[in-house]
Write a structure and sequence with these properties.
Blueprint lengths: L1 H14 L9 H30 L8 H23 L4 H10 L1 H18 L3 H7 L1 H6 L3 H15 L5 H25 L7
Helix pairs in contact: 1-2, 2-3, 2-8, 2-9, 3-5, 4-5, 5-8, 8-9
Length: 190
């Protein structure tokens, strides 16, 4: 749905500039995709606790799809930055990467998510066995890096960053508590 709205907004912007996306439509597109990418990534983190709380194993079946959507939005976010803000000027992109820490942090998060996306298949689960689960804990550092990226970009109104950060820390804390309980001899609830 967010992409459908964005397509509508871009179509309106083409026919009547400045009506939907504001004075800098390129920046608005980049921000929109980044914000929705973070939200969907946060939703991905909610799937396992929701499965454990409800006892509904089918909920876990959507985790991969939601995670891939998050990666897609964030890849589009980066692509929009390259096209709309950096204008595919590679000298400017290299300069941005070296001078703007928030871009480097965001790129690092995207690289982690790309690795998780590439290894999200059942084939990779079989090949990596137990290491697959350890690798996919990388979603937490990627989320924290994404939040740092957002925090450094936010000029005022840190409410979203605080909300997303709090939810991330609660979900990470729940996951760590579950792991500690499991590895200390407790039975894990599926």
């Amino acid at each position: 749905m967010p992409l459908a709205w964005l397509a509508y907004a871009i179509a309106r912007e083409v026919s009547a500039p400045g009506t939907v996306l504001g004075a800098d439509p390129g920046e608005a597109v980049v921000e929109f995709l980044g914000e929705w990418g973070i939200r969907i990534l946060l939703l991905t983190l909610c799937v396992s606790p929701l499965r454990r709380l409800t006892g509904n194993a089918q909920v876990a079946g959507v985790r991969r799809m939601v995670g891939l959507f998050a990666f897609a939005y964030l890849a589009l976010h980066f692509s929009a930055y390259l096209g709309f803000l950096a204008l595919f000027d590679w000298a400017l992109i290299v300069e941005d990467l070296s001078e703007r820490s928030y871009i480097m942090v965001g790129l690092l998060a995207l690289i982690i998510l790309a690795l998780l996306s590439l290894t999200s298949t059942r084939g990779w689960q079989r090949r990596l066995r137990r290491n697959w689960q350890h690798l996919h804990w990388g979603i937490y550092p990627a989320m924290l890096l994404g939040l740092l990226h957002l925090w450094w970009l936010t000029k005022d109104g840190f409410g979203d960053v605080v909300l997303y950060g709090t939810l991330t820390l609660v979900l990470l804390g729940e996951r760590l508590a579950l792991s500690w309980y499991t590895y200390s001899g407790g039975e894990r609830k599926q």
